[in-house]
């Protein structure tokens, strides 16, 4: 579905992503992990066409994304950043309705079909009873769900999430990631997200892509990627990786910095 092929990305004169390649299959949840400053968010922004890349190619359904219009991409792909801003007085329903505009002509109004999709997105994100509340009145987890609902209203094939759990407490982090998994399982929605927490990446991902200094360190399922050697090499931390019979995902316990 989505292929990143030998992509190189620069900020001014500095190359931040170097000859990077990976693929995302239809219906997968893929997490991109790596230390701060390794290029995770930059790579995601380039996939969303929010930042240009110098070399290589990114294709969506075998079509070079550079050849696609912004409107065409918006119908297939949606990205949510770490922090999303909206006027304080905008209601949840109004925010979610913005997800329909990629499907409308200039100045064309939303019709009954559009509003049915908006209400469906609110229901999927468990926000129907909050639809008339202003965004400013929501908790962090509720607000993040509202933005995800807006993305759902676009009916994208791929959802890109840049650190969706940042600034949230533990319970809201769990709430948002559970919602992501629910959307993936019930709607076969493909998800690519940047995560900091190694245990969250292990628990919620089909595939993990590890970035180190702009290069692809390794790619694989959580059991293949989450090793003490990878964590030592990439994060400079000694760790213990635990497996329990009733849980598919490995559990990572950070022990100490590498001496």
Automatic annotation (TrEMBL):
GO terms for MF: ATP binding; ATP hydrolysis activity
Alphabetic keyword roster: ATP-binding, Cell membrane, Ion transport, Iron, Iron transport, Membrane, Nucleotide-binding, Transport
Protein name: ABC transporter ATP-binding protein
Transmembrane region(s): none
SMART domains in UniProt: AAA (SM00382)
Localization terms from the record: Cell membrane
Family matches, as CDD domains: ABC_Iron-Siderophores_B12_Hemin
InterPro entries documented for this protein: AAA+_ATPase, ABC_transporter-like_ATP-bd, ABC_transporter-like_CS, P-loop_NTPase, Siderophore_ABC-ATPase
Cross-referenced SUPFAM superfamilies: P-loop containing nucleoside triphosphate hydrolases
Membrane topology of the entry: Peripheral membrane protein
GO biological process terms, semicolon-separated: iron ion transport
Domain (ABC transporter) ranges: 2-238
Keyword Repeat: no
Species for this entry: Metasolibacillus meyeri
Gene3D superfamilies per UniProt: P-loop containing nucleotide triphosphate hydrolases
Top-level taxon of origin: Bacteria
GO cellular component terms, semicolon-separated: plasma membrane
UniProt xrefs under PROSITE patterns: ABC_TRANSPORTER_1, ABC_TRANSPORTER_2
């Amino acid at each position: 579905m989505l292929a990143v092929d030998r992509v190189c990305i620069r900020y001014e004169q500095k190359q931040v992503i170097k000859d990077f390649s990976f693929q995302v299959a239809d219906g997968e949840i893929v997490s991109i992990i790596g230390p701060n400053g390794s290029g995770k968010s930059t790579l995601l922004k380039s996939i969303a066409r929010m930042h240009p890349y110098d070399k290589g190619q990114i294709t969506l359904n075998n079509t070079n994304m550079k050849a696609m219009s912004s409107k065409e991409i918006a119908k297939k792909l949606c990205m949510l950043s770490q922090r999303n801003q909206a006027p304080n007085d905008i209601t949840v329903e109004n925010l979610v309705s913005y997800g329909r505009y990629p499907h409308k002509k200039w100045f064309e109004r939303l019709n009954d079909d559009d509003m049915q999709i908006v209400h469906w997105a609110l229901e999927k994100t468990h926000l129907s009873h909050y639809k008339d509340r202003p965004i400013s009145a929501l908790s962090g987890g509720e607000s993040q769900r509202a933005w995800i609902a807006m993305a759902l209203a676009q009916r994208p094939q791929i959802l890109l999430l840049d650190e969706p759990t940042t600034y949230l407490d533990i319970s809201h982090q769990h709430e948002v990631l559970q919602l992501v998994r629910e959307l993936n399982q019930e709607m076969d929605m493909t998800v690519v997200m940047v995560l900091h927490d190694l245990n969250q990446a292990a628990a919620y991902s089909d595939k993990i892509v590890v970035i180190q200094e702009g290069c692809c360190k390794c790619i694989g399922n959580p059991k293949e990627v989450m090793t003490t050697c990878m964590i030592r090499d990439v994060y400079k931390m000694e760790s213990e990786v635990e497996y329990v019979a009733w849980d598919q995902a490995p559990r990572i316990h950070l022990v100490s910095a590498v001496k």
